[in-house]
């Protein structure tokens, strides 16, 4: 009878680990390969092919390229309602990063009521404050952060499933109303959220909630709050300009800053029209930190009709 060859477990484990490392090393990709794969994964993600996008993002991760990639993996998994995998990659990415912008998308809407999400936010807040200084109101900052995710929720699906846009609006409108109710309580207790209280990355959430309200009366109601915050350098001039234009359009007046793009349903083209004093438009835009109107229109592939 042939004797069985027994390999000690420790030796087998060492051999297996070494073999895996060799395989990773031999299959490692160049930065140009990674760039190509990233473009591929991003394209798949944008058209809703989440399973295929995840496969490519994981290949990038397995080759040791983590910058931004793990956030993308977390977003894709969150959209696919695989929260455990989303948290796995967030727990890799978040401790290495001090900014908030990677978490701002509505992709994480399914995760914000999970205890693990609170831990992720605490890490983010600690990293940010260690680099940029302490918040006066960290609990308010966390609350606003989650409100921002609600505000941005489901826009991904608007692009992926345009035929189902009304279905997603039925889900989104209650979130917007919930945000507005919470915002009214915040205003009553704290006033307009200040950059000095919640940080310059989180404070703009207040503007987004007002900007996206369906009611003109609410825009008018909070306009003076935002104007006062801008005057005290606690909010952005750009935000006030956008809200000014939004209110003017709703009231049938001309835009001041040319921020509101319209869609011509007959010619199927975006356009900018109804602007006050167009000769000085770029001057006004520059004063509030907006890009020249020509560049802005290129972003929309829009026409200027004045």
Provide a quick synopsis of the model.
This protein has helices at residues 9-26, 31-46, 50-62, 69-79, 83-93, 115-132, 138-152, 155-160, 165-190, 195-198, 205-211, 216-231, 237-250, 281-287, 293-300, and strands at residues 262-264, 269-273, 303-305. It has 306 residues and is mostly helical.
Number of helices: 15
Instruction: Sketch the major β-sheet.
Output: 3 strands, mixed
Mean pLDDT, all residues: 88
Instruction: Give the spatial strand order of the biggest sheet.
Output: 1-2-3
Beta-strand content bin: under 5%
Molecular shape? globular
SS-based structural class? mainly alpha
- List low-confidence stretches: 1-27
Helix content: 55-70%
Order of helices and strands: HHHHHHHHHHHHHEEHHE
User: In angstroms, what is the radius of gyration?
Assistant: 24 Å
> Would you report the number of β strands?
3
N- to C-terminal distance: 94 Å
Structure notes:
Helix 2 runs antiparallel to helix 3 (50-62). A three-stranded mixed beta sheet has the order 1-2-3, with no helix packed on it. With 306 residues, the chain is mainly alpha-helical. It contains 15 helices and three strands. Residues 1-27 have low confidence and may be disordered.
Tag the structure with descriptive keywords.
3-stranded mixed beta sheet; 15 helices; disordered N terminus
List the helices and strands and how they pair.
Layout: H1 9-26, H2 31-46, H3 50-62, H4 69-79, H5 83-93, H6 115-132, H7 138-152, H8 155-160, H9 165-190, H10 195-198, H11 205-211, H12 216-231, H13 237-250, E1 262-264, E2 269-273, H14 281-287, H15 293-300, E3 303-305
Helix pairs in contact: 2-3, 3-4, 4-5, 7-9, 7-11, 12-13
């Amino acid at each position: 009878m042939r004797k069985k060859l027994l390999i000690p477990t420790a030796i087998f484990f060492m051999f297996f680990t070494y073999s895996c490392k060799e395989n990773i090393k031999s299959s490692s990709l160049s930065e140009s390969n990674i760039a190509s794969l990233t473009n591929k994964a991003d394209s798949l993600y944008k058209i809703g092919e989440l399973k295929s996008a995840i496969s490519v993002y994981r290949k990038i991760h397995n080759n040791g390229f983590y910058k931004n990639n793990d956030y993308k993996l977390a977003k894709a998994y969150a959209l696919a309602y695989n929260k455990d995998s989303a948290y796995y990659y967030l727990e890799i990415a978040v401790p290495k990063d001090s900014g908030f912008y990677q978490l701002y998308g509505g992709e994480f809407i399914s995760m914000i009521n999970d205890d693990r999400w609170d831990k992720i936010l605490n890490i983010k807040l600690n990293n940010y404050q260690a680099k940029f200084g302490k918040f006066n109101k960290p609990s308010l900052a966390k609350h606003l952060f989650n409100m921002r995710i609600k505000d941005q929720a489901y826009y991904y699906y608007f692009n992926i499933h345009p035929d189902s846009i009304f279905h997603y609006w039925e889900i989104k409108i209650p979130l917007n109303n919930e945000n507005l109710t919470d915002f009214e309580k915040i205003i009553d207790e704290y006033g307009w959220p200040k950059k000095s209280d919640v940080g310059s990355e989180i404070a703009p959430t207040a503007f987004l909630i007002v900007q996206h309200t369906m009611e003109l009366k609410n825009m008018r109601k909070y306009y003076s709050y935002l104007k006062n915050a801008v005057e005290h350098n606690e909010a952005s001039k750009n935000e006030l300009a956008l809200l000014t234009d939004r209110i003017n359009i709703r009231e049938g007046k001309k835009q001041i800053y040319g921020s509101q793009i319209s869609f011509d349903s007959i010619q199927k083209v975006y356009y900018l029209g109804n602007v006050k004093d167009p000769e000085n438009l770029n001057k006004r835009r520059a004063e509030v930190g907006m890009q020249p109107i020509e560049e802005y229109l290129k972003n929309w592939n829009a026409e200027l009709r004045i």
